[in-house]
Amino acid sequence: MKAHELYTAVDPAIVTQMLDWFRANDKNVYRSAVATLAGNRKLRPIFVEKKSMAEQYAWIHKTLKLKPCDTIGEHLLQAYLMAGQQSLLAMFCDGMGIPHDGKGSVVGDLPKKIDQARLDTTIDRLADIFENKLLAVYLHCFNMQVPEGWPELTAKLESDERLKLA
């Protein structure tokens, strides 16, 4: 799944949560995203900035669903998860036995294969702690880190009702 497909499928509340986090914690990223997305649409950023916050968020979400905005969409997801959801990332890496820096950033190479039993146990644990839709977004993003994703994780994302994006 590509980032624009993820934004098409995800619950808008998750996008709102992400954008709220950027506005509260890293306004420069929010402004840069608005400017980049507006530029991609041949608009001036002021066009978006004059809208109400709800309208800005709706416009950003709608724009992130477009294939040409895939790169900025993926960067926004990664920045949000790496800075705003470090405990989720670290707990996933711990559960999967993936070496990381203590904040969820993988140290070294990603695993070539994922152990199914360990994946199931880790997801069960995380689903009890984190909002399932947020967990699903993270797992989809993690699965984007290798071409075609890991078959075990792809199957889990397709079959586990808790991991539906919307």
Tally of individual helices: 10
Rounded to an integer, what's the Rg over CA atoms? 16 Å
> What coarse outline follows from CA principal-axis ratios?
elongated
Number of strands: 0
Q: Percent helix among the residues?
A: 55-70%
Domains, number: 2
Beta-strand portion reads: under 5%
Summarize the helix and strand pattern as letters: HHHHHHHHHH
- For the termini, the CA-CA separation is 15 Å
- Report the sheet with the most strands, covering strand number, pairing sense and barrel closure: none
Q: Which stretches are poorly predicted, pLDDT < 50 over at least 5 residues?
A: none
| Rounded mean pLDDT score | 94
- Structural class estimated from helices and strands: mainly alpha
Written description of the protein model:
The protein is built from ten helices and no strands. The chain is an all-alpha fold and 166 residues long. It has two domains: 3-84; 86-163, no CATH class. α2 packs across α3 (27-40).
